[in-house]
Amino acid sequence: MSLPLREIDDDVVRCVLCGAPAVGPCASCKAMVCGDCCVLTEGGVELHAICARCDRNKGRSLRTAWRSLVTASVLLIVALALFAALALAALR
Question: Which of its termini does the chain have fewer beta carbons within 10 Å around, N or C?
């Protein structure tokens, strides 16, 4: 007597590397990966999962993610300063 095959749910998110059910996104490239296809790395005070592809290409560094966060923050501050300067110029 053989066991029935389990049907795969269509709404289950799959790992981009092996097709197993994914547990979360890679901290570097945001691709969904399973627990077997990721490596844990320290980034600040928390542990982050890096997919095997990013670990192989870039190493376990989160430098790119931190750089994009700082860049976005600086651009936001510059945009707010520009808006404030234009608002003050319009009031005069």
Answer: N
